[in-house]
């Protein structure tokens, strides 16, 4: 009898779990079109000048006219431009080359947090930034993939397919993970990792080093709710783990604020040091700020100077994007 009761209880729990996942899937399905539209709108806002390589080479975009040289062929001469001058001119195109950029977005339970200081959850903002970045990259002629979910693609529908993949895998083990898959990316490829990076630094280091093992370069974008950084609470406060399985009560939480902020700052410094050591860049985005800010910073870092498209690894100050209009929130 006891075994039968336990079996019925287990079945009921499993059914409740399925219904919970179904509700979450419907909620995400309701929100994904809006998130996708917002991602495309934000990408359109900041797309200008995304992938200019700033050098001549194979491509479709006009670069400049220059005078004909002895090493040039007659077929390279632009006769229309040359007709208005006493010199022969060659029409050069801007160098273009497709790269593969793998994106990964942390959709684990810890990303569901939203305080009274922010309009959206960390999860929603991370997904928005990931999709918008993919849209920008595809518009710039790059191949993008959602690490572990979609293959590399340069299709203009790549962003939509990413959103569909997120929905199709809602509640899966891959989406419960707090770290990207331990895979080795190809040399000269890129990566954009969007997460709150709250795992112990040893776990983060192992996964990021695996991605960069063969020389891939990229970005770490930390998504932070302002309350996670400042602990703006007073008096008796109850804290729950992301899955609700643990709780902790602080009688006078304000007495912990200074020590808490020190530990948060120290942990962030470790993540920043990890990125800098690998030649990756690192930036912090607060969910009460405009989502265009990290995208603008991302673009500036992707527009490396010199003969090749490189990811710039220098730490960027918040001054890069503090002047963005609040209307973009």
Word description of this protein:
Helices cover 40% and strands 15% of the residues. It has 329 residues and is an alpha/beta fold. A five-stranded parallel sheet has the order 4-3-5-6-9. A two-stranded antiparallel sheet has the order 1-2. α1 (2-46) packs antiparallel against α4 (158-168) and α6 runs parallel beside α8. It is elongated and about 85 Å long. Residues 48-60 and 305-329 have low confidence and may be disordered.
Mean pLDDT: 77
Shape: elongated
Please indicate the percent range of residues in DSSP E strands (runs of 2 or more).
5-15%
Question: Which sequence of SSEs, written as H and E, runs from N to C?
Answer: HEHEEHEHHEHEHEEHEH
Measured as a percent range, the helix fraction is 40-55%
Query: Helix/strand/pairing class, anyone?
Result: alpha/beta
Would you report the number of β strands?
Answer: 9
Tell me about the largest β-sheet: 5 strands, parallel
The span between the termini is 58 Å
Q: Helix count, per DSSP?
A: 9
Q: pLDDT under 50 segments (min length 5)?
A: 48-60, 305-329
Name the strands of the widest sheet in spatial order: 4-3-5-6-9
Radius of gyration: 24 Å
